[in-house]
Specification:
Length: 773
């Protein structure tokens, strides 16, 4: 018979388990967060790090356009450059000032420098500015934490830094130039921060900055350091909000100095004008991971044209994507959810609540004046997307049409529009959904752009609407993400999902490969329909070539899966028919999940053997061979004219036993094995763990046996099955005596006392009993 090679290892198929020190990888946070709307699409480079994410800060490093945006001169730096240019009547260019302030070193002392800003200062005898720049660069090496090498304290108080602080204080006190006085005071404050001298920070800030208006970037940089020295928690909140709003380069560092547990009303008491109030509301909105609609409404009333308002709207839409579609599509709870219920499944009622919130947000967006907001395109797109979230698909398409009339030029926004339109066209089909022609090129383009979440969303929408065939084919495309580990971007584009029944068919309870998902979720009829579709439709046009490229190679695996599903219901004839369509090269390929395991004889076992090679394993089978032989021995066992019926029933029982978790052919029913009992939610869970069919046929073998010795062996083997059944029950306790609790062992002792001790304690006697059938 054909050779069948399988694997003893924990088989996880194509599932990629990155092994860390603490154990195998399990997706969480941003790895499972579902999103289609990339925050950087609408170009908020000053805020993009604060996009909604499960991690501390959102990273746009995988988006080239966003990376280019972030390479531009920082807003705070530009404001500083503008101050210097204003001092020079805006004559030197921006690039020259930037180079002199942030790049050049000793060259600033050259009156004939190639830098036009330096030349301007010398030509206009602004030596105080030259002296300041020289001193500022001398302070540079000390503007960082210098740790105590003896580890006596977290920060080392450096004498050189103290001398620089003293010099800066003297210059600030003695100069008449108000701008340079502030700059020197700022240098002293920054040095004092790194010298852990909060007293000096507070004194200098009070003297030079607390009452200075209007404030410039030097004020806000100084306020940044003052925030760390501020003892009043409410004042600290206020300062943090002002720094966050007006000093973009300090946003990451100041973000967590704002305590969102302090009521906003208390912080607002320090605000003396509308801009300061807006800054407080703005940072409160950025810090809030829950519903922030009230904050959006307040900012719109105060300053509707504020760019941060548009960004906060974008955050809110991204939140709703996570709250609604992470559980809807993946069955994981949202990335920032507080915790799931006892079944580890996010309740559908929560999704309904979040759709209701999307409705409220949509109602607000409809009230805004497009002429007052900073980015009308974003607000119009939000109308379309929120309509989709509230399942108003026709309305969403109308909003997209309005957006098209606005002549959107940004390619990234157009892509988002096409993605949303595609989802609407599928979701609005109530049942028997198909892939519309206009959606097909979008699927190819987005897949080629590694937007796997869109492909996954389309697959799920099709599946939810009865088209399980196209859903499976699209899911098969995701498995082409091979060898992910060198590419960190994989972890942002990886797709992980669970089933509603929380199947546990692998080492983990989630899937990132379509085949194992079909194993858990699809019926034999759905697998048959899938195979038929692949055979009839591949390669007719460009889309079909793309669509079937992966799955057409998996026809043998799908027949293997179909046979396995029939076997789980004990439909042996259909299982054999399916296995006969599988080339033996699949089982001998050496690929997951068919690695070499054990060249085992499924018709042999004994009282103690589990997964270990035996002398009886000289006969090898493939899956079709096992089922064909099992059908043959069952037919012989049922023939009342057969004098060896007990022997044939016993062989059939052995085969059924070996196809359970405890046997040498468990891979007939599963694609993964574990010593632990994981209830998979598959249809044959009870059979797989309880050995009921094996027990049934051992009992039949006893009933027709003509030998008391063989009958006793049948009772012993039935008892072995029952022992596993007892141990697999949820109420089983290790202190329970299996011999006493097992009715087959009890009956064995009553009916065949002479054989009892032999059969329950002597591992050498099996063959002698077996030969006496």
């Amino acid at each position: 018979m054909k050779h069948w090679a399988v694997s003893l290892l924990i088989l996880t198929g194509s599932i990629s388990l990155a092994t860390y020190a603490c154990g195998p990888y399990y997706p969480y946070g941003d790895d499972i967060r579902f999103t289609l709307l990339k925050p950087d699409v609408f170009r908020y480079p000053g805020f993009v790090n604060f996009s909604y994410a499960a991690s501390i800060f959102y990273s746009a490093n995988f988006d080239k356009e966003a990376a280019l945006l972030n390479d531009s001169i920082d807003g705070s730096v530009r404001e500083n450059i503008m101050l210097w240019r204003k001092r020079c009547k805006n004559i030197p260019g921006e690039a020259a000032v930037y180079q002199a302030v942030y790049v050049l070193d000793k060259e600033i002392n050259d009156p004939h420098s190639a830098n036009s800003f330096i030349r301007y200062l010398y030509m206009n005898r602004d030596l105080e500015a030259i002296n300041y720049l020289t001193f500022a660069k001398a302070c540079g090496p000390f503007n960082s934490v210098i740790e105590d090498p003896w580890e006596r304290q977290e920060k080392a108080n450096v004498p050189q830094r103290a001398r620089l602080i003293s010099h800066a204080e003297e210059k600030a006190k003695g100069l008449k130039d108000a701008e340079l006085r502030q700059r020197y005071a700022f240098l002293a404050i920054r040095l004092a921060y790194y010298n852990d001298d909060q007293k000096t920070i507070r004194a200098l800030y009070e003297l030079y900055f607390s009452h200075h208006n209007p404030k410039n970037i030097i004020d806000y940089w100084s306020m940044y350091f003052m925030t760390f020295a501020e003892n009043d928690s409410i004042r600290r909140n206020f300062n943090a909000a002002q720094v966050f709003s007006f000093a973009p380069d300090k946003r990451n560092e100041i973000f967590f100095k704002y305590n969102h547990d302090i009521p906003i009303e208390k912080t607002l008491k320090y605000a003396v004008n509308q801009e300061q109030k807006v800054a407080v509301w703005m940072l409160a909105g950025f810090r809030k991971t829950g519903k922030a609609l009230d904050i959006l409404k307040t900012i719109y009333d105060l300053k509707p044209g504020l760019p941060a308002l548009g960004f906060l709207l974008l955050r809110e839409v991204n939140k709703l994507e996570d709250w609604i579609y992470t559980p809807w599509y993946t069955r994981f709870e949202p990335s920032l959810a507080g915790g799931s219920d006892e079944n580890n499944i996010y309740p559908d009622s929560r999704i309904l609540d979040d759709r209701a919130y999307a409705r409220k947000l949509l109602d607000f967006v409809h009230t805004i004046d497009p002429g007052k907001v900073e980015n009308p395109t974003l607000w119009q797109f939000s109308k379309a997307y929120l309509s989709y979230m509230t399942e108003e698909y026709s309305r969403s398409l109308k909003e997209i049409y309005i957006l098209e009339k606005m002549s959107v030029k940004e390619t990234a926004v157009k892509r988002e529009m096409a993605i949303l339109r595609s989802l609407c066209l599928i979701a609005m089909q109530k049942e028997h959904a198909i892939i519309p022609e206009s959606v097909k090129p979008v699927l190819i383009r987005e897949f080629n752009a590694a937007n796997y979440k869109f492909v996954f969303a389309v697959a799920r929408e099709l599946e939810f609407r009865g088209n399980t065939t196209d859903a499976a084919i699209l899911l098969s495309k995701l498995k082409s993400r091979v060898d992910p580990f060198p590419d960190e971007a994989y972890w942002r584009n990886g797709i992980y999902w669970r089933t509603k029944a929380n199947h546990y068919t692998l080492y983990v309870d989630y899937y990132d490969d379509y085949f194992y998902y079909l194993d858990a979720q699809y019926t034999p009829g759905q697998i048959q329909a899938l195979i038929a579709d692949i055979g009839a439709n591949q390669g007719k046009n460009k889309f079909d070539v793309w669509k079937y490229a992966v799955i057409k190679k998996d026809i043998p695996r799908l027949y293997d899966l179909l046979g396995t599903k029939y076997l789980r219901t004990n439909d042996l004839e259909n299982a054999l028919d399916s296995y006969d369509k599988v080339s033996d090269t699949l089982w001998s390929s050496g690929h997951y999940p068919y690695h070499t395991y054990l060249n085992a004889n499924p018709f042999y076992t004994n009282m103690f053997n589990e997964h270990a090679p035996t002398a009886a394993d000289s006969t090898h089978y493939n899956k079709a061979g096992i089922i064909r032989s099992l059908l043959a021995v069952l037919k012989q066992a049922e023939d009342i004219r057969n004098g060896d019926r007990a022997h044939d029933y016993f062989l059939a029982a052995n085969c059924y036993f070996n196809m359970t978790q405890y046997g040498n052919s468990w891979m007939m029913r599963r694609y993964y094995w574990s010593a632990w009992i994981h209830k998979s939610q598959l249809s044959d869970d009870d059979e797989y763990y309880h050995c009921d069919l094996a027990k049934q046929y051992y009992v039949k073998a006893k009933a027709v046996s003509r030998s008391s010795k063989f009958a006793a062996l049948c009772m012993r083997m039935a008892g072995r099955c029952e022992s596993y059944s007892i141990r697999s029950r949820s109420d089983y306790h290790e202190k329970v005596s299996i011999l006493a609790a097992n009715p087959y062992y009890v009956d064995l002792k009553k009916e065949y006392p002479v054989y009892y001790n032999d059969l329950v304690s002597n591992c050498e006697v099996f063959d002698s009993y077996f030969k006496n059938f």
